[in-house]
Amino acid sequence: MSHILTITGVKMDPTTPHENEFVIEDIAHALSLMTRANGHFPTFYSVAQHCIGCQKEAEARGYSKKVQLACLLHDAAEAYISDITRPVKENLPKYKDYENVLLDMIWDKFLGTPITEEERTQVFDIDDTMLYNEFFHFMNYKLFEPKSELLTKDTQNYDFIEFKLVENEYLDIFYSLYNA
What we know:
Blueprint: E1 4-5, E2 11-12, H1 24-33, H2 47-60, H3 65-73, H4 78-81, H5 86-89, H6 93-111, H7 117-139, H8 163-178
Antiparallel strand pairs: 1-2
Helix pairs in contact: 1-8, 2-3, 2-7, 2-8, 3-6, 3-7, 3-8
């Protein structure tokens, strides 16, 4: 089999994707069911929750709606190729190539204009800052020294939330930013 089948019925080969195959409902659904840290946190915390947290941090920093949407979508490629822990991902150049192609296509489809290097830096700084804070919260472990502080530290929700509620929140945020 050379394709995957998404929850909305899209058949796609993630190694040769086409822009029309990316459906936001597929992304929200898949990410709401994927766990962060490869399942090693003491409770379920989804990739979608992480992405929502990143979007809220971008909003708190006063970043544009485009950057906020990019933060929400920054792990969207994982809806099609799953997540791999950073130590392994760094040693899988072909995976990183697929991930980058997928993410760039997803951003091109949903952001309206190409993402700039400055915007990309803003997104991945937030991603790293969230990663650091997630590990500190769940594991009391300082994974690395973050480049910036989390402005939303006191309002981040690390509680278990039923996946359908997370999926719906992800979609609500997406549509509010996409239609802005």
